Amino acid sequence: MSTSKTRKKISLIGAGNIGGELAALCAKKQLGDVVLFDIPSRVGVAKGKALDLEQNSAILGYDAKITGTSDWADCAGSDVLIITAGIPRKPGQSRDDLVATNLPIIRDVADNAKKHCPEAFVIVISNPLDAMVYEFMRRTGFDAKKVVGMAGVLDSARFALFLAREAGVSIKDVRPMVLGGHGDDMVPILSACTINGIPASQLMGKDALDAIIRDSETVDPVLAEGARTDWEKLAAESPEAYARQRAEFDRRLARLGEAQAMRRAMAAKDDALRAEAFDAFAAGQRQNLLRRMPELGDPMKRKAVAAELSAYAATLGFTDTEQARIVDHRLVQVFHDAMLHRRQLAARDSLAGKRIKHSSPTQAPAASREEGVRRSARLGALKRNAIRSGRVDDVVDSILAHLDEDQ
After folding, report:
1. Candidate CATH numbers 3.30.300.30, 3.40.50.2030, 3.50.50.60, 3.90.110.10; the one for domain 153-219
2. What is the maximal distance between C-alpha atoms in the chain?
3. Are 200 and 191 in contact (CB under 8 A)?
4. Can you state the angle between helices 129-140 and 299-315, rounded to 10 degrees?
């Protein structure tokens, strides 16, 4: 780390819009020297922004060294590490949809941070925030007190802006309050919000406040747009557009409600509620994993998917033990079901080819059913063994080998 005789060193990982803006703020406030880091293909952007900001110091009168780079060695010894790296949301995506995309990025950042900046205080901004903070801390082993996520102040600022706009007052007079994580479970607390000391509820109507709360809570752009849509008018003007947009809006609204209910259940002290939430979440991952079957044949891909699922489970409040149970049970269950499905198709094709050779039409189906029962029992035993022993990779590999032997 920097010594007390030198300026502090602040490294920004990601030279996009947020990284560049934060670099400018750090320089103008003379918080320390700034390193603007990005991947090699974008190092030109990082160096260009750094040069612009450093030249601007002659006009605005601040004194800071600003470096653009794609070499982690330039970040070595940083006092503060601010991580904005990651792929932004596309239209229709929620923050949680970015888990699979941004996990590999945050892991690479974590590995390099551990090597080059082991003493840094880390601020994570990448989405989905809670999952990225958890994975960074887990991957690096850094003290929890030195790894934080920046989000609550952003949610409060958003709520304050909407209140100030509606009331027609200076944003400096608004005192907002929001609770929850940076995502679908963020909740504005209206009873604690004031405008120049006066409760916001006394200065604007219920409909206006409800609209502000919807806009502040809704981080999914599809839901934000849907909340403002006149559905009856859209149905009259374009039934096709109405059907398409309404279906997507309803689907995402249901997902939002499920996520909020899940988090409430996980926060409750009721064991029955928690068990129900656990079962619901585990079951809900089954279809997601089945869609990703082609990835799971590779052990490395399987480990990546397991880590991704654990990180998402962590954002919902599951303990490490519960996360392990979810990952183990779901991965093996998916393989078990997929293998059975594949065998049923093979048995059907085999039966279609052999049917004309049997004098009795019931002989082949009976043999096929018996073989299916035997195979199901063998795969079921493998699955139960995995759940008991926790050796998911070994058992999944056994299932794959078992399948290959019969092809």
Report:
1. 3.90.110.10
2. 97
3. no
4. 120
Q: What token pair was written down for 159?
A: 């709520």
Told to judge if 182 belongs to the known catalytic residues of this protein, a careful annotator would answer: yes
Q: Are strands 33-37 and 9-13 parallel, antiparallel or unpaired?
A: parallel
pLDDT digits (tens, 9 = 90+) for 264-296: 555 555 566 666 666 666 666 666 666 666 666
pLDDT at 149 over 70: yes
* Alpha-carbon torsion angle 363, 365, 370, 372, nearest 10: 150
Distance of CA 146 to the CA centre of its chain: 21
Neighbours of 286 (CB within 10 A): 14
Give φ, ψ of 353 to 5 degrees.
-80, -25
What's the confidence (pLDDT) of residue 150? 84
Nearest to 400 by CA among 304, 302, 272, 283: 302
Q: Are strands 194-195 and 174-175 parallel, antiparallel or unpaired?
A: antiparallel
Q: What tokens does 109 get? A: 């950042």
Q: Specify the DSSP class assigned to residue 220.
A: S
Neighbours of 363 (CB within 10 A): 13
- Which CATH number does the domain 9-150 belong to among 3.30.360.10, 3.40.50.720, 3.90.245.10, 3.30.160.340? 3.40.50.720
How many residues are there in the chain?
407
- Which distant-in-sequence residues (6+ apart) come within 8 Å of 46 by Cβ? 15, 36, 37, 38, 68, 69, 70
Cα angle, residue 151 at apex, residues 154 and 1 outer, rounded to 5°: 115
What is the b/e burial string over 337-347, where b = at least 16 CB atoms within 10 angstroms of the residue's CB?
A: bbbeeebeeeb
Q: How far separated are the first and last CA of the chain, in Å rounded? A: 59
Express each pLDDT in 117-127 by its tens digit: 999 999 999 88
175 DSSP β-pair partners? 194
Banded model confidence at residue 355, pLDDT cuts 50, 70, 90: very low
Catalytic residue chosen out of the listed positions 116, 182, 329, 336: 182
Q: What is the dihedral of CA 176, 256, 249, 312, to 10 degrees?
A: 110
Q: How far is CA 399 from CA 60, 152, 303, 375, in A?
A: 66, 45, 16, 11
pLDDT for the residue 55: 94
